[in-house]
Design goal:
TIM Barrel, 14 helices, 386 residues, globular, 35% helix, 13 strands, alpha/beta, nine-stranded mixed β-sheet, Enolase-like, domain 1
């Protein structure tokens, strides 16, 4: 069996309402951009995945990855992953191109990918990841509704001009829902969307003051409290906290950066993303070494249901994980329904706030082909005719 063709489909899917991401000052998102990646073998077996980014990712993959995949054995995942990693030197992150290879392997074996990875979890606890900034009263009401809907954990976004306004949100939410919801906070201080004004990163004193307030509120973890490369600041901050854990790493790239985060003892929780941080294979290696240091690996995910489903399998296979990031922030346009509109079977939480791993072979993608076709704006095909 060998790889006979690669197809990249760029989709632009409408959101039902505007979405104003906390990490993108002034940006209003009205559509979800998804790059579907398909790898087909000479036997007709096809693996599916998605990449991080849009046209820039498609160009990177087409120029620097696809030519080196054609004709290769798709089951030589670790060897081909080296090609996928190297592509970022010249273009956008292409780590997501490993996902179709694992999907192929799972389909050929007739097994879910998480079982190939040795995962024993049939379901993973979800935490609802909100995405917008809202006032204290409004966010408290929203989180109460999420709790009524079955979520047991919710992540708030901080990024107001004044951190005191952020803390007011956390206090209002805790007052509203009490201890029935586990709370996390994402400060999004590691960086901001390029070209957008208004982002002022916290300094160490601000991060420490906020973190101590969150400890008093019983928050589980604080994500990205300082700029991405401030390794000494992160280590100092972590050393001064008693119960609040620090999390981050979604914007790191490559195992080398994650090794530094471990060596410098920056985080209690690493959050790599199998589409934009490293390949899924490398994240599994990272998790083994992180576990030796008592550090959890809870993958970051955002974007489409394709990405979420891949990360569900990854989370289910990692013994030092235990959570699935579940992007969902009604009444904005970024809801679970909008996120999963490409899936014929959207992902939902059960009565205990968990997401079950589909028992189908591979990653279990069930694509709504009619919707995908309707919203495709560009196609790049290489190899045999599709």
């Amino acid at each position: 069996m060998h790889i006979a063709g690669v197809r990249l489909r760029l989709l632009e899917l409408p959101l039902g309402a505007p979405f104003r991401p906390a990490w993108g000052r002034g940006r209003v998102q009205t559509e979800l951009v998804v790059l579907l990646c398909e790898v087909r073998t000479d036997t007709g077996l096809t693996g599916l995945g998605a990449a991080h980014g849009g046209l820039e990712a498609a160009v990177t993959i087409d120029r620097f990855v696809t030519p080196h995949l054609l004709g290769q054995d798709p089951f030589q995942v670790e060897r081909l992953a080296a090609v996928i990693r190297d592509a970022e030197i010249l273009g956008a992150p292409a780590y997501g191109m490993e996902i179709p290879l694992w999907d192929l392997l799972g389909k050929a074996a007739g097994m879910p990918v998480c079982q190939l990875w040795g995962g024993g979890a049939a379901r993973v606890r979800a935490y609802c990841a909100t995405g917008e900034l809202r006032g204290a009263r409004e966010r408290a009401r929203d989180v109460a509704q999420l709790a009524d809907g079955g979520f047991r954990a919710v992540k708030l976004r901080f990024h107001h001009d004044d951190p005191r306004d952020d803390l007011a949100v956390a206090r209002a939410v805790r007052d509203q829902v009490g201890d029935r919801i586990e709370l996390m906070v994402d400060a999004n201080q590691a960086g901001a969307d390029p070209g957008l004004s208004g982002h002022r990163a916290w300094d160490f004193r601000t991060a420490l003051a906020v973190a101590r307030e969150l400890e008093d509120l019983g928050v589980s973890w604080l994500e990205e409290p300082l700029p991405r490369h401030d390794l000494s600041g992160l280590a100092r901050l972590r050393d001064r906290l008693a119960t609040l854990r620090l999390a981050g790493g979604e914007d790191s790239h490559g195992l080398g950066e994650f090794r530094l985060l471990l060596e410098r003892e920056c985080f209690d929780i690493l959050q790599p993303d199998a589409l934009k941080s490293e390949t899924a294979s490398a994240i599994r290696h990272l998790a083994a070494f992180a576990g030796l240091a008592g550090v959890a690996v809870i993958p970051h995910t955002w974007g489409s249901g394709i990405s979420l489903l891949a990360h569900l399998h990854l989370a289910a296979s990692l013994p030092n994980c235990g959570y699935l990031e579940f992007p969902h922030d009604p009444p904005s346009g970024f809801t679970a329904a909008a996120r999963d509109q490409l899936l014929a079977e959207p992902l939902v939480i059960d009565d205990e706030g968990c997401v079950r791993v589909p028992p189908r072979p591979g990653f279990g993608f069930a694509l709504d082909e009619e919707r995908a076709e309707r919203h495709t704006v560009r196609v790049i095909e290489r190899g045999d005719s599709w």
